[in-house]
Specification:
heterodimer, A: 92 residues, mainly alpha, Helix Hairpins, 3 helices, 80% helix, B: 311 residues, 2 domains, 12 helices, 70% helix
């Protein structure tokens, strides 16, 4: 096999982002939109870390960025879910 | 690369893609959430394959564990009306152009990626490591070179907690206690281990995979498990002590950042001889605070006492 290292991970990252973006647009249910957003962010994280690995040594900067990103994604999810619950309580 | 490793990667990534699709489009919402949690677990394995143990630790505790608990708790609070309704589109007029655009974008991205110059910032980080005050490059980036990002990120988390508290009651106010006798006993056995692992990860953060984020995530996992087993936030803790614990990480971070300005007048410019102790202080405060903030995010509202009124 003469694939460059990380090609599989890059392809998976692109697919995950596509699934997430597609779901974010086409799903009606808000909880599904949150799930789709999380899938898309995972795709972005996967891309960042795979790119950081292409050099000779492992690049710690993308790792730190992704660690930060995971926590921010979780905070976003928590607030979004809180808003969804509140929204459904408001509707008759 | 060894063919077996390649096969393993291919299977792993294929299952991730399939689970991600199910996590978004499964017919039943409960099934979607469970698929998403499994997707999170497999992502943690992918991080290990990419030699990123710090991220794998955080992902396993947060991406699969805490996000899953959060989603399931939300599902319990929502009406079960979540059919898989989708926006109706005509394939030829809507989907086809976008798919073509997506494919072109991906191809372009792949081409750019493969043409990237190989060394990233790893050499710059390696050169700066002697002055960092810690041995682990990831911790050095998080708490020294790019400490500004981490400070803002902790501020974002605190903001999320404030936003949730302003939205309504906590999740425990609407869920009955579980009538399972085994879970509280198990949690009583496990909780000290959670605390021990948290402090181990905090201590280890200076020279290896670990640090404030995985430690905080583990602490939060322990606390959430205790809450699920019937433990409640004691009434005398819900006022000022809880608020202090939530804000401690951000305050300690800010105090250190402003304090070191006395030396050279630059925000976050640690004096090299004091860098290890300062970073350790920030790391412990941030780790514990992250744990408490994540638990507060799971609760989804200001903790209430047994009567159900805000305390």
């Amino acid at each position: 096999m003469s694939l460059p290292p990380g090609t599989l991970f890059l392809l998976a990252a692109a697919l995950l982002f596509a699934i997430g973006a597609h779901g974010l647009v086409t799903c009606r249910h808000l909880l599904r939109k949150v799930l789709a957003l999380n899938v898309a962010t995972t795709g972005v994280f996967l891309l960042l870390v795979t790119l950081g690995r292409s050099g000779t040594a492992v690049d710690p900067v993308p790792h730190a960025m992704v660690l930060t990103g995971i926590v921010v994604a979780l905070s976003t999810t928590a607030v979004a879910l809180g808003l969804i619950v509140r929204l459904q309580r408001q509707r008759p | 690369m060894h063919p077996v490793e390649m096969l393993f990667d291919a299977l792993l990534l294929l299952s991730m893609v399939v689970l991600a699709w199910q996590g978004v489009h499964a017919r039943n919402l409960f099934r979607a959430v469970v698929s998403f949690m499994m997707f999170g677990l497999l992502t943690a394995v992918a991080w290990v394959r990419l030699e990123a143990p710090d991220i794998a630790l955080a992902e396993a505790a947060l991406g699969a564990g805490l996000t899953g608990a959060l989603l399931l708790a939300t599902l319990g609070r929502l009406d079960q009306g979540g059919r898989a309704t989708r926006l109706r589109t005509t394939f030829m007029r809507f989907s086809l152009p976008w798919m073509a655009l997506g494919l072109a974008g991906t191809t372009l991205l792949l081409a750019v990626t493969l043409a990237l110059p190989a060394p990233g910032l790893d050499e710059a980080v390696l050169r700066a490591m002697p002055a960092a005050g810690v041995d682990s490059p990831v911790t050095a980036v998080l708490l020294n070179f790019r400490a500004w990002d981490t400070l803002l990120e902790i501020a974002v988390m605190l903001l999320a907690v404030v936003a949730l508290w302003s939205l309504g009651q906590d999740v425990l106010a609407s869920t009955p206690r579980l009538p399972a006798p085994a879970l509280p006993a198990l949690v009583r056995l496990l909780f000290p281990l959670f605390l021990l692992s948290t402090f181990y990860l905090l201590w280890r953060g200076g020279h290896g995979p670990g640090g404030a984020f995985p430690a905080g995530a583990l602490l939060a996992a322990g606390l959430v498990l205790a809450l699920l087993a019937g433990a409640r936030v004691p009434e005398r803790m819900t006022g000022a002590p809880l608020r202090c614990a939530l804000a401690a990480g951000l305050l300690a971070f800010l105090m250190v950042a402003v304090g070191v300005m006395a030396d050279r007048g630059v925000f976050f410019a640690y004096p090299p001889q004091h860098a290890p102790i300062l970073i350790a202080m920030v790391e412990i405060a941030a780790g514990l605070s992250i744990g408490v903030m994540l638990t507060a995010l799971f609760l989804g509202g200001e903790p209430t006492d047994v009567e159900g009124g805000p305390s």
